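ugh ok fine here u go
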Amino acid sequence: MFNLRLNSNVLRLAAAQALAGANSVVVYATSAIIGHLLAPRPALATMPLSIFVIGMAAATLPVGLITRRFGRKAAFMFGNLCGVIIGLLAALALTVHSFALFCIAMLFGGAYAAVVLTFRFAAAECVRAEDRPKALSTVLAGGIVAGILGPQLVTATMNLWLPEAYVITYLAAAAVSLLSAGVLLGIRFDYRPSAAKTAGGRPISSIIRQPRLAVAMLSGVVSYMMMNFMMTSAPLAMELCGISRASANCGIEFHVVAMYAPSFFTGRLIARFGAPNIILAGLSGIALAAIAGLSGLTVHHFWIALVLLGFGWNFGFLGASAMVLTCHALDEGPRVQSLNDFVVFGAMVIGSFASGSLLTEFGWPVIAGLILPPVFFAMIAILWLKGLRPRELPQL
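structure:
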């Protein structure tokens, strides 16, 4: 169990994850629709979402620098500022019908999402070493609330100011960012940056040569990139297969629940069986999702694939995050964590841009089949790591 004060910190981070994560859900639910309304050409309709992912990747290293220099809370406040800016800029873009301004807003939204994903590492700094996996999963469980709050926010506000749909939605998202900032202000960290600490630690070149870190980063890249690659293609694939939009939306809802619901027990499983074994289970789930996608084109094949994909992502991504925490000392954390996230989200950019064109050119079976080689490669890397003798793995 967490002690009372530190448990309060973790719960605040989980609540902030729920509030801030709702902003990302708003983007995923509306950006393609708004892009279709504002873009000069239909082919550019999904560009705002791709720019959102670019914003995530581009912000990871600056966020790590802010954390090292000024502390976690300064990075959190920077993120919430970006959350307010995306809401205000997107609302303005809708009012003046500017596609370019809406895309700029998405950059800030991606930066906000990048900061939100550091909450899982911040939670690990609030607990004892043995409780870190549980802290990671507790914070990520806030995504369940985000998955509910985001769509409800869109439904309740999208038509409040016609004819400019979604203006109030993004203003409400800005307000939610302010509420999240208020929740985060109450967090107290034992760790404080100092000149000595920010300059200390091993050289980053030495840290990244650790086999454990290399495999952890590979596992995070494969888990997140393959999930994003398959998930972003699924709604359009279902439409091309003649499946109703309501059924497609239901499949995405199942997927989001499967992504975050296991977080209530993933941390305990990591603590009991070890991060490498949980990553293997996650990668197996993603492989099964690909096999389900190759097995047929009915609505049930899509649903089963999306549920397996969600479970696989949760185990793979949380397991990889927990393994990253074993590869650095406390004062090295912001540098290593931001580098890890930069690599993971940079790979997501590739998947985000590639999935749509590959789907329209080659079809859903090719999308599902392309999942398998990277997953098998990551599984081999995990098995190789498990086969190393303890003395071959550098200890902190």
